[in-house]
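Two proteins, back to back. First:
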Amino acid sequence: MTGAAGNDNRIMGDALMAERANADQWQRVKHRLKTELGEDVFNSWFARVEFEDADKAGVSLSVPTRFLKSWIQSHYQDRLLSLWGEERENVARIELIVRGATRVKAAAPAEQRGEAPEAPASLPAAVSAAIAAPQPRRAPEVPDGPLGGSPVEPRYTFDTFCEGVANRMAFAAARSVAESLVGKASQFNPLYIHAGVGRGKTHLLHATTRAARLAAPGRKVVYLTAEHFMFRFVSALRNQTAIPFKESLREIDLLLIDDMQFLQGKSVQQEFCHMLNALIDGARQVVVAADRPPAELETLDERVRSRLKGGVGIEIGAPDVDLRRKILATRYRAARDVNPGIDVPETVIEYVAQSVVSNGRDLEGALNRLVAQWQFTNQPVTLASAEITLRDLVGAREPRRVRIEDIQRVVARHYNVSKADLLSSRRTRTIVRPRQIAMYLAKVLTPRSLPEIGRRFGGRDHTTVLHAVRKIEELINGDHTLADEIELLKRMIDE
């Protein structure tokens, strides 16, 4: 028995080592992509890509939507293959799978045979199985017909949404939209919901979409991510079907747009503005979600921002402790339905609710880890072990978003120059150095890409920004006074 247990431990140890190696390789690939593409482009296309599996010949990655799979295959397949080839020898293929549909299909044969599903082989899959909802997982819904739309997750309903003080207004407004009469927009038009990551924006939009379709089956309800809208518009232009595409969009009764911050491209934004005006003027309902208020969507056309600001904007705040308890209780019940023997003491659940404060996604991730700890160690979950397992999540808060305008204002005031001077073409030393410092701070304190920073500094080329960043980095290494001065500026900007 001892020998068998030793073999089991070695097998598990080898599996965990392989898991860590795969995770490290994927992190390096993502870092390279982010460096090459810039923060905005990377977040648009790769933020939701996950590593699934790897063998000697290839790597499997998963994405949440078929659209995202198609886009990455068309634009980044070769680059992914090249980067993975630098991490693993003999990689000949990159396989992209859609998470919802693929996992359901994989589980179907065992269920049809009346057998128990096969035990998961890797940590992410095991954790996913442990916290899955008690009802069978269904593939995301995609509406038929020419209007199309992005997939809608069946689990995201109003019934499964955890309501609290932080999201009560957004929840009530979304329900009002879903229950409004066909052909009559609600009083919240456009309804604009904004919040940081993991606070329930997408859940609310999916729930609104499904509830509106159920309330009035004849209603034309379309849910689209901003990236899907861009893809469909570009495809329509390429296929010379732009006019039917525009007409189909303007026939919508309820349009829901998610991740508005990713809408890019002048022609795409112009068409979106025309469609937005046509729908609102025709008493059709529009719901938009983004990670910040309209005024802070700096890459968005001013006319679009103005129309969005003219609607009703509602922010979903950070969950308070009561809402965090409710989220954890809901997820824990779902986990126990799948694993009846799991036991996470109430003291540990309360510790998580009090300590993980940033958003619901981090709360779910914390519970995932505790489930994994219970599954793989066969040891009871205690407060001491939970503190170790969750130490990087405890107390984590969403960092304050820094805008380039804030940096320009603080730097201009500190060096006694005007903001207009920073954006001008003047090249006197009293202007050039503050401008370079402001560009450097914009690069290190914001997720903006070099081209975006250049545009915000008077339409400069990205190479100018890169030169400024490297120049300040070089000066900081040899000039402690300047280094202290820049640290002071960072604190001033963060205040």
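And the second protein:
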Amino acid sequence: MHLSIIVPVYNEEETIHMLHQAVTDAMQSVQEEWELILVDDGSKDGSFTKLEEIVEKDPQHVRVIGLRRNFGQTAAIAAGIDHAKGEIIVLMDADLQNDPQDIPLLLEKIYTGYDVVSGWRAKRKDTFITRTLPSLFANKLISVVTGVHLHDYGCTLKAYRREVLTGFRLYGEMHRFIPVYANSVGAKILEIPVHHHPRKYGKAKYGLERTIKVILDLFTVKFLNSYANKPIYLFGGTGILIMGISSLILLYLFFRRIFFSVSVIASPLFMISSMFFILGFQSILMGLIAELLVRTYHEAQHKPTYTIRSTVGFEYRSQSKTQE
């Protein structure tokens, strides 16, 4: 199985049959083997029944996963990836706002050597105030913090090589940060404009509150990508900064004591300086503990601290050993 298309489904009974037909039509021009994995994320309407009907109609291509309850879009995507057989993974939404006709274009770019091809809803058909504007703010913030500059992190329509999806688990709203994780292992990323259609059926599952969740998840992503292997840099750096501030305050207090005869202990700054010094020292100790945890994690699971794109010449070495 070369290609897996993963679609999380939540209360989309009106669109499921149309989605299947649209994907089938789009894949007519693709010569590779493909499968469509539909993950029902605890739908409360008749979505799962519709999914079963599609499996009976197209057992060659369609696979259905039913989750016990609504775990969220990220968990549904993770379940689809875990059960996918394809070397290339395509993600998309079930509400027909993403256009399956863009899938061959994503694949075309993947075949030219890219590891991640991300869709960009350049002409987005959503409510500006509640959907588009918060998304613009979130995308800009994510790009600045992570250093991976994409116009549209929120667009689910993306294509990935499977190897860049290994080595991490998805939680919370983390599915939108997959390109960031992929970039951390050296993936080549391309963003291309894709079609976006107005929502005709059902209602949107997310509003302004999602922006807050994304910002909170961004802290986790930044930490995992920048400091997961060397947490002492974060905790130790913060500790040294706090202790430095404490030292400056103490110097100021001693300067006042020597030249102006102002008591050091009587000043509230002395207490603040002492607390800062203790906090800084504790932060360094936390960094050392985190370092021990990271080393235990890698060594216990034999997990490498690097990823390899390809190797050259090893097959010759293996042949030489066989001949000897």
